[in-house]
């Protein structure tokens, strides 16, 4: 079968012919119908050789967003049937610790100890004609959703949904939410905020095209993320602070901007995989201001995200690529020229 694999550290991924995998006991093989390309993949492929090899194998089939048709069951695999159309829940855990018992395998207490990694981020993923899923519990029925239009919800939908749910208690009438970075995840975050809260939603980005997308999907205001952003937000809201900031970039300029917008009991939610520093402490930030960094989401939350899609409340802007075109999709992703999310269709 064909697969898109990261083969050499620092080099672009390659389309390769590899053996079609067979499911082991308890496993499920999917015939992949769609796979999503993500900035997390670019982050991993951008690691220096020593850091990469300390955590990831070579070669590795990319793709941690995946949907497909159940094609073959390993011995003892129960809960799905051959022919089922399913989405893959990506953050796999041990299945038995306290977090996993709640469906929060994204916060598994033993995953690192046991060497459990998500598909495409440590083991072979979805950018292939077939993929192996470790357990039927990592599958969620699509129930009529289009696979290509909705594959990105497994991360680009689930991650912002989980991040926003942690702040829902603050996002009541009269509240405000700033979304920094309105590309693949950010434009979904805007829709989730509009679907779940009455907050005034403000979008920030460095690209006018992405700000246009932000307005199309429901942002009340959209401003360039530059030195004027804080003043623009103050004019729009009539005050210099906001209820919550969701940062899908997380580099020093966005950290500085986000923390300057915090007031008493504000949330700063770090979602992007960038890095930087800021001051914390009783006198460094307004009282009860919170900085947190959620990761991915629970299996139950993925079910909820797919329900939002069925209700027409969340849609992902996608550009389709064939498997042979997948390297170009990652080039576009790296260059920042994708309007929404790149989806690979084997």
What's the arrangement of secondary structure elements?
Blueprint (H helix, E strand, L loop, with lengths): L1 E5 L7 E4 L10 E9 L2 H7 L3 H7 L4 E2 L3 E9 L11 E4 L9 H4 L9 H4 L15 E4 L5 E3 L5 H4 L7 H8 L10 E5 L5 H11 L3 E6 L2 H9 L4 E4 L4 H9 L4 E6 L4 H9 L1 E9 L19 E3 L6 H12 L7 E5 L3 H10 L5 E5 L1
Count of discrete structural domains: 2
Mean pLDDT: 96
Order of helices and strands: EEEHHEEEHHEEHHEHEHEHEHEEHEHE
According to DSSP, the number of beta strands is 16
Span between termini: 10 Å
Radius of gyration: 20 Å
> Helix segment count?
12
Briefly note the CATH topology name of the largest domain: Quinone Oxidoreductase, Chain A, domain 1
Largest sheet entry: 7 strands, mixed
- The CATH homologous superfamily of the largest domain is called Medium-chain alcohol dehydrogenases, catalytic domain
CATH architecture of the largest domain: Alpha-Beta Complex
**Strand percentage:** 15-25%
Q: Globular, elongated, flat, extended or rod-shaped: what is the shape?
A: globular
CATH class categorisation of the largest domain: Alpha Beta
**Oligomeric state of shown chains:** single chain
Spans where pLDDT lies below 50 across 5 or more residues: none
Structural class by SSE content: alpha/beta
